[in-house]
Amino acid sequence: MKNSNELIFIAGFPRSGTTWFSNLLNSHEKVIYRHEIIGRNYDSFGEELMNALKMNHGLSDIEYKQAMDVIAQADVNVDKPPFFKKGLGFFGLPRVHYFCWLATKALPFLKDIYNYIFNVSDESNWKVLVKETRTTKNLDSILKGLRAENIIYLVRLPYGTIASHIKGEAIGTMEKTTKESKSEWFEYNKNHTYTQSINLTLDELNAMSTAEYYAIQWRIYHEDLVRFKKGFTDAIFCFYDDFVSHPVKETKSLLQLISLQYNEQVENFIESSTGKISSPSILKDSNNDYYSVYRQASYDKEAWKKVLTDDDIEKINKHTQDYYQNLRNTFRVGNL
Fold first, then answer.
1. Relative to the CA of 30, which of 46, 88, 117, 317 has its CA 20 to 30 Å away?
2. Contact 317, 293 (CB under 8 A)
3. pLDDT at residue number 89
4. Residues 78-135: pLDDT tens digits?
5. Is 152 buried (19+), middle (13-18) or exposed (0-12) by CB count in 10 A?
6. What is the structure's pLDDT at 75?
7. For residue 168, which phi and psi values (nearest 5 degrees)?
8. Gap between the Cα atoms of 55 and 138, Å rounded
9. CB-count burial class (<10 Å; 0-12, 13-18, 19+) for 172
10. Looking at residue 281, what is its pLDDT?
11. Where are the alpha helices (DSSP H) in the chain?
């Protein structure tokens, strides 16, 4: 994959709307989406290249070409419905793409054929989109290594994010928080500036409610993004709740920043994913509404109020309220 194919990298805290947001960009005919390829499909890079990507804070030209070749390669584990009409070859047939994807998921021996058909060619001059939500661990090294043309940090109000985690744990779509997972998180973050500022101990962490634990995670994650911003000065902060409230206005502004034109296909995705028009079921991304990017017109962006208790909200505010507002005050004006 040559440098003519530019890389867009989206990072966001889990359950911050990054999948919907990524598909907003993916709906553009000049964007190809690779869903969480680093977190989900890291084996495809190989151990040596993956270690260099995570640890070296930059890749050699040969390593960079190898990494981009991996990202260019189609794979059913990181290609994900919905598929949209693109401007070249079989990418122009989203229904065919969907059935090829389904067939390869069911019959893995078709993998080589699928990969050949849906690879990103050197001559395409597309923007290739990578999205990650796992952790900020090694993220700055990964960003330097991949030399992303556009870096976007997506920020969601912590109430919705944390409520989504709590709901996901309750209905079994997300792993439950355990003492082991808290201990692992604490070991990595015990020397973080915020952890130190509140004198957090592992015993205190284990005694916390799930809401407060995620609030501290949210705070530290976004403090790291701000720190990374110093090294990636062109990185863009986008605020998910603004895109939910004013999707057309915000999308037009963002596309202009990353040198893409707003078009009918993007508008159709906005309308179908916000319940304004119906979307053919064949193009939908998930049978589980919890993970779907398509919402009903009745979608309530303040549904978190039905999940979080008053005590939850108080604890979340304690760790995040001022910081979220500071993020908006610092990065919202002038970006979009």
1. 46
2. no
3. 79
4. 998 999 998 777 888 999 999 999 999 999 999 999 999 998 876 667 899 999 998 8
5. buried
6. 92
7. -60, -40
8. 7
9. exposed
10. 53
11. 18-26, 37-40, 47-55, 61-72, 94-106, 111-118, 139-146, 158-171, 179-189, 193-197, 202-207, 210-229, 240-245, 247-257, 264-273, 310-327
Percent composition of the chain: helix, strand, coil (DSSP 3-state, to 5): 55, 10, 35
pLDDT bin (cut points 50, 70, 90) of residue 297 is confident
Q: Alpha-carbon Rg of the chain, whole angstroms? A: 20
**pTM for the full model?**
0.93
161 Cβ partners below 8 Å, 6+ apart?
A: 13, 14, 15, 16, 214, 218
Q: Does domain 6-332 have CATH number 3.40.50.2300?
A: no
Domain ranges, ordered by start, for the chain: 6-332
Structure-token pair, residue 35: 């869903």
At 305, list the tokens: 């109020």
| Contact in structure between 89 and 96 (CB atoms under 8 Å) | no
Structure-token pair, residue 56: 């070296």
Cα distances (angstroms) measured from residue 19 to each of 25, 29, 55 = 10, 17, 26
